[in-house]
UniProtKB/TrEMBL annotation:
PANTHER family: SUCCINATE--HYDROXYMETHYLGLUTARATE COA-TRANSFERASE. The keyword Transferase applies. It comes from the Bacteria. One of its GO terms (molecular function) is CoA-transferase activity. The keyword Transferase applies. Keywords: Transferase. SUPFAM superfamilies: CoA-transferase family III (CaiB/BaiF). This is CoA transferase.
Length: 419
C-alpha cells in the first residue's frame, strides 16, 4: 500500500537470533524496506534452532526454524562478509543510503571493521543506529555474553515467579518463552520510532540507541520493582495467584480445565459472590473488603478451590462473563487459535512460502484504520536478494557482482541469482 506508516524508510538489519530480528520485522510490518544481512556460509544461527523446521529437508544454510520464521518476515536477505574490506565497503555504502541500522554483536565487534556508529555517522549523520546487547555499551559487564534466561535471572524476573516458599516445587522459575528478548525488541522499537520522529519532524540528527536485555528485564518488573523500592520488601512468589491489586485474583482448578479470575474491587467482589452462589462470602469479615481478603488470601483461595471444583472451566467462564466478572480459561495454543475472538481479530495470518506451501504466522497486533498492515511476506531465503539489493540500491553491474560472489565477499541463492 502506498500510504503505509514507514514507506520510504530503509532498515539495514545486521542482527541475529531473536531480539534484534524482531525489531526489523516490526518495522517491516509497518512498511519499511528491511534488508537482512547474514554472514556468507554462516547465516543467522537461529535458522538452525530446531526442530521443528518448516522444510526439514532443505540445505542446512536454508533451514528455517520456528524462531527464524517468527522474527524475519517482510524482509529482503543478502549475505555479505563484513570481515573482508570489500564487504565492509558494501555495508558502508548501504548504511549511507539507510535510515536505520540494527545490530546485536558484542560490544566493540563492529568497531573493528569500521561499521560502528561513529564510523557510519561520519558518512550518514541521519542514521538511527540501534545496538542491542546483553549488558549495554558501558559498565563492567559490557563485554559479557548472555541469553534470555540469563537476564530473567539477573534482572529479577525469575526470582519473582514460581510457587510460594514451602509449596511443592517452590523456588524461582523462568518464563517459558524468551520473554526478555521479546520485550527488549518492543522497547527498542519505541526508541527507533522516537528517534525517527525527532530526526524527521523536529529537525534532529541521527542517533545511537543503546539498549540492553538486562535493563529491559529490570524495566519489565515494573510495579514489582516499585513495591520493593517503596517498602524495601521483596515481592512474594505466589505461583498462579496475583500478588497485588484486587483479591481474589489468580488461577483456580475446575472439574475440567482451569479458570483465571480477577476481582478488582469490593463492588465486583459482591457481584462475584452472587455469581458463584456464595453470598455468605460477601459478609464474611475475613473477606468483606479487599484489605481483609489480601490479609486472608490463603483462606480465600482454599474456599474458592472448593467452589470452582464443582463445574468445568467452560461452565464457569460462561457464568462469570455473564455476571460481568473478568475471567478467562487457561488455553493451550491449539485452543488460542480456535478462539473466536482471536480468529475474528485476524491474529492468525497465512501467506505462501516459496515452496508453494501455506505458511501460518501470528499477525502484528497493530490495527490501523487508514493504513492497515496487510503484507506478510514469508521470511527470505538465505541470500535471496543479494543481487537485487546490490544492483538496485548500489548500482553494481553484473560483472562486479559475479566477482564479489566468486571471491566469497557476498553470497546468494543460485536460483535467485540466475533469475
Amino acid at each position: 500500500m502506498s500510504d503505509r506508516q514507514l514507506k520510504g524508510i530503509r532498515v539495514l538489519d545486521m542482527s541475529r537470533v531473536l531480539a534484534g530480528p524482531l525489531i526489523g520485522q516490526m518495522l517491516g510490518d509497518l512498511g519499511a524496506e528491511v534488508i537482512k544481512v547474514e554472514r556468507p556460509g554462516v547465516g543467522d544461527e537461529s535458522r538452525f534452532y530446531g526442530p521443528p523446521f518448516f522444510d526439514p529437508d532443505a540445505e542446512r544454510i536454508d533451514l528455517e526454524s520456528a524462531i527464524y520464521i517468527a522474527a524475519n518476515r517482510n524482509k529482503k536477505a543478502m549475505a555479505v562478509d563484513f570481515t573482508r574490506p570489500e564487504g565492509q565497503e558494501l555495508l558502508r555504502r548501504l548504511a549511507e543510503r539507510s535510515d536505520v541500522l540494527i545490530e546485536n554483536y558484542k560490544v566493540g565487534t563492529l568497531e573493528k571493521y569500521g561499521l560502528d556508529y561513529e564510523s557510519l555517522r561520519a558518512i550518514n549523520p541521519r542514521l538511527i543506529y540501534c545496538s542491542v546487547t546483553g549488558y549495554g555499551q558501558t559498565g563492567p559487564n559490557r563485554h559479557r555474553p548472555g541469553y534470555d534466561a540469563i537476564f530473567q535471572a539477573e534482572g529479577g524476573l525469575m526470582h519473582s515467579i514460581g510457587h510460594p516458599d514451602g509449596a511443592p516445587g517452590a523456588g524461582p522459575m523462568r518464563v517459558g518463552f524468551s520473554m526478555v528478548d521479546v520485550v527488549t525488541s518492543l522497547y527498542a522499537e519505541v526508541a527507533v520510532l522516537s528517534a525517527l520522529y525527532r530526526r524527521d519532524a523536529n529537525g534532529g540528527s541521527g542517533e545511537h540507541i543503546d539498549i540492553s536485555l538486562l535493563e529491559s528485564c529490570v524495566a519489565l518488573t515494573s510495579h514489582h520493582a516499585a513495591h520493593y523500592l517503596m517498602s524495601g520488601q521483596l515481592p512474594v512468589r505466589r505461583g498462579n495467584m496475583a500478588g497485588g491489586g484486587g483479591v481474589p485474583a489468580g488461577m483456580f482448578p475446575c472439574k475440567e480445565g482451569n479458570i483465571v479470575i480477577t476481582v478488582g474491587n469490593d463492588q465486583q467482589y459482591r457481584r462475584f459472590c452472587e455469581v458463584i452462589e456464595r453470598p455468605d462470602l460477601a459478609i464474611d469479615p475475613r473477606f468483606s473488603v479487599n484489605q481483609a481478603r489480601a490479609s486472608n488470601r490463603e483462606a480465600m483461595v482454599q474456599v474458592l478451590n472448593e467452589v470452582f471444583a464443582t463445574a468445568s472451566a467452560k461452565e464457569w467462564l460462561e457464568r462469570l462473563v455473564a455476571g460481568g466478572i473478568a475471567a478467562g480459561q487457561v488455553n493451550d495454543l491449539a485452543q488460542v487459535f480456535q478462539n473466536e475472538q482471536v480468529r475474528q481479530r485476524g491474529t492468525l495470518v497465512e501467506t505462501t512460502h516459496r515452496s508453494g506451501k501455506a505458511l501460518r504466522m501470528v499477525a502484528t497486533p497493530f490495527h490501523f484504520r487508514n493504513a492497515p498492515v496487510s503484507t506478510y511476506a514469508a521470511p527470505p531465503r538465505y541470500g535471496e536478494h543479494t543481487r537485487q539489493i546490490l544492483q538496485e540500491v548500489l548500482g553494481l553491474g553484473s560483472e562486479r557482482l559475479e566477482a564479489l560472489q566468486r571471491d566469497g565477499v557476498v553470497d546468494g541463492t543460485p536460483s535467485v541469482q540466475q533469475a
